């Protein structure tokens, strides 16, 4: 039905055909436009379809084109509106819609990955491992040209991103348009997504009393590098726990009190590194609690 050219691709490059078919099913024009109509809260479609804007941005993200304007010039006849309309659509895109696009694609792709047996071996069985980190465009050249020499000028936005290794997907994102805001101001939104059985891997910026204790209260676990500002009490002395590839490990129990006065008991690991980190640290302290 699709002709001999398609059959050749199926025979000689079946993986690329499968990938293209999967992406068309999830992120093709029709499903994307239907999703957008259900999701957008303020914007609406008049002449410029969301799928068209998505296609133009994809060419920039994948470095096929250097800019949205360059992508538009190559497809001007297909777009059907002015480049000003394209930029107006992009400028008005809600952060909620952008975040929901990430969640939507993860929801749609996860069962497909499971169906074809594409999941990776879990690091820890019975746990849903989620890696969270902040993302911020900090380099001056990424700011608006007029503001690059202005120290008090507006900064680009930032986001917290959740990656699940088992599926190899970014499954959630928490964007913030205020470039001056701290990552910790978004922790409340992240905590609303924590579920029993999760195991969160985080850097030390996430090591706050409120964040760790709330994860524990929700029946989830975490592994986080200890922040020096975290208040805690030692319950047991350090005892040797053997060697790992990069150093020697000792462990102890500590407890942290939450805002309601409840105590949470965590494991505290000290790793004496064979070689110091790039920041000159010879010892690392890791806090852990299992769901």
SSE map:
Elements: H1 4-12, H2 14-27, H3 29-39, H4 50-61, H5 68-74, H6 76-79, H7 83-91, H8 95-115, E1 128-136, E2 158-164, E3 169-176, H9 187-191, E4 198-202, H10 209-217, E5 221-225, E6 233-234, E7 239-244, E8 247-257, E9 263-273, E10 283-289
Task: Report on this structure.
It contains ten helices and ten strands. It has 291 residues and is an alpha+beta fold. It has two domains: 4-93, no CATH class; 120-289, Transposase Inhibitor Protein From Tn5, Chain A, domain 1 (Alpha-Beta Complex), CATH 3.90.350. A hairpin with a 5-residue loop joins strand 8 and strand 9 (263-273). The relative contact order is 0.08.
Q: What does this entry show, briefly?
A:
The chain is α+β, with helices and mostly antiparallel strands and 291 residues long. Helix content is 35%, strand content 24%.
